[in-house]
Design a protein that fits this description.
With about 280 residues, the chain is α/β, with parallel strands linked by helices. Helices cover about 35% and strands about 20% of the residues. The protein has 2 domains: about 55 residues; about 190 residues, Rossmann fold (3-Layer(aba) Sandwich).
């Protein structure tokens, strides 16, 4: 079987399975399987390649099949134990890098992609990533090792901020935010990701309520909080931050023009009037 024939067959199979971009996925799988081939080159182990195509036809994400996902400037190892990093989340990283920070807290770190991307850009900063999943934390630690960042990146098992000590001048999170009623309409690929990283149940705002209430105690005066949100949640999350005393609340859009990040700041400490 030549590369051209293999791609044609894979494209037909993936299209029949409803895969959104069958040709691109087929090419990625073939390159992963055999490296770069010319159209007339024979495909080594064609049965092995067809097994990869079968996994994708079952709607397993390409990143899980390849074992990695590109995000920001790096490739991160991903498994079924972590949320697959999305390009939209890069908007949160971009916003975090707009101002200096020295100590960052990443709540629900998953693969560690947010925390590690930030630390790679700010070589004088340190950070802590938390997650309730030991399996996710193992993936994050492995990614930190691969990027040479373990000296500046710590990881801890925690339910949001429970048991977290210290003060941070930047807190970031991409928490689960899909409402329970919306889960059935999600793409089949999301069934391969941990449910707890997608939805907190209920109206999808539970994680934001916890973070808004608990984060200020672990933030320095003037520290920033950056939260990724679903595209319809900007008003509700902004109200939660306002009620918790955050200032300078703003909603940031992604490249598609959708609300993607809510930003707030802990007010600076009140000046002593001397009276």
């Amino acid at each position: 079987m030549t590369a051209r024939d293999a791609l044609a067959r894979a494209r037909v199979r993936l299209a029949a399975a409803g895969v959104p971009d069958p040709f691109t996925d087929a090419r990625r799988l073939l390159q992963h399987h055999a490296g770069t081939l010319f159209d007339v080159d024979p495909v080594p182990d064609p049965e092995g390649f067809e097994a990869l195509v079968a996994r994708r036809a079952a709607r397993e994400p390409v990143s899980h099949i390849l074992g990695r996902r590109d995000f920001w400037r790096h490739a991160f190892r991903v498994t079924a134990d972590v949320l697959d990093p999305r390009p939209e989340t890069e908007r949160l990283v971009e916003a975090a890098l707009e101002r200096p920070f020295r100590r960052v807290l990443d709540l629900g770190t998953g693969s560690g992609c947010i925390l590690l991307s930030l630390l790679a850009e700010r070589t004088d900063a340190t950070g802590l990533g938390t997650d309730v999943s030991d399996a996710a934390l193992a993936v994050a630690r492995g990614n930190a090792d691969a990027l040479g960042l373990r000296a500046r990146a710590e990881f801890a098992r925690a339910d949001w901020l429970d048991g977290i000590d210290g003060a941070f001048d930047l807190v970031v999170s991409n928490p689960p935010y899909v409402a329970e009623a919306e889960m059935a309409a999600l793409a089949p690929e999301l069934g391969f990701e941990p449910r707890g990283a997608l939805t907190p149940g209920g109206d999808g705002l539970g994680a934001y309520r916890r973070i808004a209430a608990e984060a200020p105690a672990r933030m320095t005066p003037g520290a920033r909080l950056l939260l990724e949100i679903g595209p319809t949640q900007a008003a509700a999350v902004s109200e939660l931050l306002a009620a918790a005393g955050f200032a300078r609340i703003a909603v940031l859009d992604d490249l598609d023009g959708r609300n993607r990040v809510v930003r707030g700041e802990k007010p600076p400490a009140a000046r002593d009037s001397g009276l």
